[in-house]
């Protein structure tokens, strides 16, 4: 057996199942455990002094004579495509007039010329569609409630006729 195979506790060798133990009421009997005299604790490797140890290693900082800082490393003159990943909780969201710029004034001007002209009409169309959807849902709910009530009335009527049949 290896060092790691020695259990911390072992079952008590003299333990016996009590005579009045009922497996159905008390559950399955398990013997009590005692500390294992062979267990010496978790294994820890021995440490020895290293006379050549000079401290924790650190990467040396060496100047690179060929390095030239480029503040516009992120700028691409020939960039023609971009990918945008959008995660949405509610389906049906539309995205249009996507603008990527680093000029806030240009972005405001572009927004007013595109989105600003149509936002009121889009909001009105959305509100109208939402109102229509809610009316349809409430009409469907009323129809379902009426159907359920009619089913209950039919059930009561059928139940009453059964009772009348029993009495006769």
From TrEMBL:
Composition bias type Acidic residues, residue spans: 145-154
InterPro entries reported for this sequence: Calret/calnex, Calreticulin/calnexin_P_dom_sf
One GO process term, biological-process aspect: ERAD pathway
Domain of life: Eukaryota
Segments for region (Disordered): 1-42, 113-168
Location (main, coarse): endoplasmic reticulum
Subcellular localization: Endoplasmic reticulum lumen
Biased composition range(s): Basic and acidic residues: 1-19, 113-136
Keywords: Calcium, Chaperone, Endoplasmic reticulum, Glycoprotein, Lectin, Metal-binding, Repeat, Signal, Zinc
Entry GO MF terms: calcium ion binding; carbohydrate binding; unfolded protein binding
Membrane-crossing residue ranges in chain numbering: none
GO CC annotations on file: endoplasmic reticulum lumen; endoplasmic reticulum membrane
Family: Belongs to the calreticulin family.
Protein name: Calreticulin
